[in-house]
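F.,

This is the one I mentioned.
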């Protein structure tokens, strides 16, 4: 009987162990030593944890369930480099917007807008010296007086060249013209490489197109009249500039307008930066910056109009308002976009505008060949209806309107104004 009772006790103990009750013993592979049950198999005290053999989809779903309680942490892991190198929450907000995260997307992370989401990400990012990567020191700021002098230099040199052309004749006049063009070109190049007109990174090759447009403002109307008249012999005699008329007033006004353009870009950047710190949403920021962009363009065009009236009155030439104002708006919008990192669209639009003007001249001269009269019909119809100024005004106007629509989309984003270093 004692043997039978001991056998019954052993069977009950074995059944409790096989049922997986916590704290039970009698696992067949454990030699009677205590173990634990993890829901799938026994883990003895000396057993090693087996590798997870579940499918990848199951493991990913389990991981997402674990991180669903803190979605901001997963977003921080995805943008770790942005969070670690940011010097303020605004930089994180601009980076998130550049990656396509909007205020509506921020609601999924339990925030009302991108700015508050960026503030939490910035606050939760460790800022220890060992964990933060070394930062690149910001570029030195150009003093205001330095870039102001550089932007005044093209107008001053151009005015000096015009005075020299009016006081000389013959070969000295030609030498002064060549030297003046080179000096104004170098001064304008230096002006756009410093201060608020400077484009970050590697600039696009737009210099040739820009100089073609400026040269057309100086010589294009004379060439157009010559082509329409059938050559130099068709022009009226007794012109002050000979067979190739030159319009100096708009060129001088555009050179003098470098300073208003720089101040306009500076004020626009400062105003947008202030709106960036005070706005509480991307839509609010865009709505606040759009009037700034329109106001900056209006102020520049008003200054250019005054300069055109002044130069036209002093030189005794037509002010050429339509072609000069459209060209000025085109060049200003191109520099504003390039200064905020958007260089592709200005390069394409400037190249298309210069090509259209060159094509108009080429068609007029090609039409003088036998059997090619029909090629110049569109250009001649435009000139007959609106005069020679219609060609530059139309081409530059279309280009300026295109860049304004593009700037109204790009320059109102937070990422366009998120650079921590300021060029001025």
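My design for it:
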């Amino acid at each position: 009987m004692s043997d039978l009772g001991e056998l019954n006790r052993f069977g009950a103990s074995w059944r409790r162990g096989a049922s997986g009750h916590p704290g039970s013993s009698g696992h067949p592979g454990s030699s009677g030593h205590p173990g634990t049950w993890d829901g799938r198999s026994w883990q003895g005290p000396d057993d090693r944890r087996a590798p997870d053999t579940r499918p990848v989809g199951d493991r990913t779903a389990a991981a997402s369930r674990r991180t669903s309680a803190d979605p901001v942490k997963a977003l921080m892991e995805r943008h770790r480099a942005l969070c670690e190198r940011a010097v303020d929450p605004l930089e994180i907000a601009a980076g998130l917007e550049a990656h396509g995260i909007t205020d509506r997307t921020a609601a999924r992370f339990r925030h009302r807008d991108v700015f508050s989401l960026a503030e939490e990400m910035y606050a939760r990012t460790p800022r220890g010296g060992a964990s933060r990567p070394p930062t690149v020191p910001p570029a030195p700021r150009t003093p205001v007086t330095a870039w102001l002098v550089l932007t005044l230099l093209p107008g001053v040199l151009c005015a000096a060249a015009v005075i020299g052309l009016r006081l000389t004749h013959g070969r000295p006049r030609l030498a002064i013209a060549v030297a003046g063009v080179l000096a104004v070109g170098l001064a304008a190049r230096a002006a756009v490489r410093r201060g608020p007109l400077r484009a970050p990174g590697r600039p696009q090759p737009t210099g040739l197109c820009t100089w073609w447009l400026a040269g057309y403002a100086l010589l294009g109307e004379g060439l157009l009249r010559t082509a329409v008249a059938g050559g130099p012999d068709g022009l009226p005699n007794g012109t002050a500039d000979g067979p190739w008329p030159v319009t100096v007033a708009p060129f001088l006004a555009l050179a003098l307008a470098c300073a208003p353009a720089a101040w306009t870009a500076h004020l626009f950047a400062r105003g947008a930066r202030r709106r960036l710190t005070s706005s509480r949403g991307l839509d609010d920021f865009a709505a606040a910056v759009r009037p700034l962009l329109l106001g900056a363009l209006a102020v520049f065009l008003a200054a250019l109009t005054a300069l055109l009236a002044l130069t036209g009155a002093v030189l005794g030439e037509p002010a050429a308002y339509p072609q000069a104002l459209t060209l000025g708006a085109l060049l200003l919008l191109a520099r504003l976009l390039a200064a905020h990192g958007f260089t592709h669209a200005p390069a394409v639009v400037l190249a298309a505008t210069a090509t259209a003007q060159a094509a108009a001249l080429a068609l007029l001269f090609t039409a003088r060949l036998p059997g090619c009269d029909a090629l110049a019909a569109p250009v001649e119809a435009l000139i007959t209806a609106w005069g020679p100024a219609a060609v530059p005004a139309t081409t530059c106007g279309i280009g300026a309107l295109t860049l304004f629509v593009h700037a109204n989309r790009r320059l109102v984003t937070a990422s366009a104004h998120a650079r921590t270093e300021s060029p001025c």
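The first helix runs from residue 2 to 18.

Talk soon.
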